């Protein structure tokens, strides 16, 4: 096993599910890979092993403590994935430090508080649908950009009080960071940019606090007080995760319904629920394909494979949801009637995604509203013509061209 050559990941992510199959064929639930910059890493592809490592103290998310190549400067800000270890927040912390950084944000996303947001989310969805309805009948529109993205981006920016005129710039870092094909120059520029943008937001809230989550974080004192770098990192992960992942969830769910008309009919007549659609989509099409980065705190001996201390590890959520050990021979199929829809697409254990309740609620409101408003909704291209998102970190498509309503049929003269 230890003499095996690493699998070189496609930084453009043209076939993330094909890669997942190849990685699973290594047969141990974890596969050696070559990351950008010819760096050796590992991808977890097995469900059982993922649950084990996601809760193990032998695996850390803190590069400043447990990644020798980062600590020594061998890998720096010009590495394509450098934004991930650069940020200082709950996602790059270990042990008690993780809980300290997580606590100030999680309290704003409790199930009770999220449920209270339902009327606001419903109004936001209806406004976006009204905008879509202005599209001329028969004309093609990009549903990903104009709906799947606009919904979570609007909600998360409203929550954190990002001014309308600054939203594109603030969200740009979250859009570029998942790009595994960044050049060294682009990687460094991206880090400078999102530090600058979030620094401006923090300074603005200090000068003019308001009723929003950014102001709450900035004004915190005592054990919930964060340093400026921690504030920047926390805002970065909250706004990035709060928009990019929900965007892919909604886009995938729409695409699956459009390409599985028999299952769409089952949803329409109530034989299965929208929750079934959402959970099966999360299982089969995890919005995140591979999430960087964890590190081996010590040598890990895993089913005949040794992951050396300090090596980076990615969680291959796109593969984990399709594990045949859990979902059998039909693991690669989208089936809303599937009894076991178990998945780890929101993580597991202490690093479970704090935004999961909000993401589910957004999808639960948006999807039925979309299909109710546009019952003739259909793809404008063949499914195989859709381009990938262009990264091995995310699992999505660049666009989702659709036709919302049928063009009027011309009336013959005479």
TrEMBL record:
UniProt-listed Pfam families: p450 (PF00067)
Give the domain of life.
Bacteria
What Gene3D superfamilies does the entry give? Answer: Cytochrome P450 (1.10.630.10)
CDD domains associated with the record: CYP107-like
- Write out the entry's keywords from A to Z: Heme, Iron, Metal-binding, Monooxygenase, Oxidoreductase
The entry assigns this protein to a family as follows: Belongs to the cytochrome P450 family.
Name the UniProt record assigns to this protein: Cytochrome P450
The source organism is: Lentzea indica
